[in-house]
Amino acid sequence: MAFDGGKRWGHMTTNLAESMNSSLKATCNLPITTLVKSSYFRLGTLFGKRGHDWTKMLGSSQVYTNNYMKGIEEKVTKSNSHKVMQFDCHRLCILVQETMNHNGGRPTTHFDVDLKNQTCECGRFQIFHVPCSHVIVARSSIRQYYFVHIVDVFKVVNIFKVYEDSFHGVPTETTWPQYEGDTFFHNDSMRRKKKGRSNSSRIRTEMDNVEKEKNEVWYLS
């Protein structure tokens, strides 16, 4: 996100790691070999299913995803209650007045829409890179289609590229080439104790040690 040129797709990608953690939650405490196998086969199955689904959607000539079109339809419905006022002779800076409260608590107000710089005072247009209801009604007021502001990342053809390459099955171990590298052995001192409940907490860092020292000082004082 720091090097994407200002186009922060954080709302689409920030939770990617958490999604993977959720799908692999049942395998996180397994031995390393079993964990790798489980991760590979589960992700391979997931990519195969998603790839098949997006292939059918791509063949239906649908341009944008279902979730995206559902959100756009809601914004179009919301834009029908807005009032447009133009103060710019070039018809690029437009004032949009809300006449109906759609936000459950926030009072109705007005927002400046700059079609040239693709900004809206509400901020949603810049954050989500999706035309908000104010941009939609502003475009309609000058007889222009709001789809010119929709970026290609929301198109079905680009979503399909994520699942375009399929996983390959793992050959049986008897057909593997002979390994000629280093041999590693486990460390017995790191073996988990059999007695008591297993502890699956996060890996502790230097920050935890500092907090522990502070708590000990507070307790002794």
UniProtKB/TrEMBL annotation:
Keywords: Metal-binding, Zinc, Zinc-finger. InterPro entries: Znf_PMZ, Znf_SWIM. GO terms for molecular function: zinc ion binding. Residues 111-143 form the SWIM-type domain. Signal peptide: none annotated. It comes from the Eukaryota. Pfam families: SWIM. This is SWIM-type domain-containing protein. It comes from Pisum sativum (Garden pea). The lineage of its organism: Eukaryota, Viridiplantae, Streptophyta, Embryophyta, Tracheophyta.
